[in-house]
Amino acid sequence: MINVGSSLPDIELVGTDMKPMRLSEVRDRISVIAFFPGAFTSVCTKEMCTLQDSLGKLGGLNAEVIAVSVDSPFSNKAFSEANRLEFRVMSDYRREAVKAFGIELEDFAGLREYTAAKRSVFIVDSRGVVRYKWISDDPRVEPDYDIIVREIEKISEEG
User: pLDDT tens digits, residue range 44-90?
Assistant: First the structure.
């Protein structure tokens, strides 16, 4: 399980462009890693669009958003394009990150043995250290976006 103070694990995710990215490579800026249960679901769409709308403020704080789901890169690409998301939407189709972060959402939407990601947010500083974490056991609950911005501002002020 990943906790505040942990370094990001060396797990490979796949982007909508089919190119791999290792989480351990997230460096040089503050990163908001937002795990979501499923592309095209109503709450996930609202969450990702809210994060998209926050990009202007986050960019001013030298922060980026990286969204992660267990959906295929193909589904994530369609989801990203349909919602005009300007941040990376990564696939954890092997569920390695979900397991490492301890955020498995088993039997998602009543689908027996289908494991998705719990809706969760991890804020990582420019050294790849987790500085904030929020996890919901209820996939209908969104994060507090004001808290996310405040945490980024706090990390940004620390330099």
Answer: 999 999 999 988 787 788 899 999 999 999 999 999 999 999 999 99
pLDDT digits (tens, 9 = 90+) for 11-38: 999 999 999 999 988 888 899 999 999 9
Contact 26, 128 (CB under 8 A): yes
- The token pair that represents 81 in the structure block: 């394009």
- Provide the residue type at 96 as one letter: E
- Which residues lie closer than 8 Å to 84 by C-beta, 6 or more apart? 52
Tokens of 129: 């250290």
Q: Which CATH architecture has domain 29-140?
A: 3-Layer(aba) Sandwich (3.40)
* Domain parsing of the chain, residue ranges: 29-140
Nearest to 2, CA basis, from 148, 123, 87: 123
Q: Name the phi and psi angles at 47, rounded to 5.
A: -60, -50
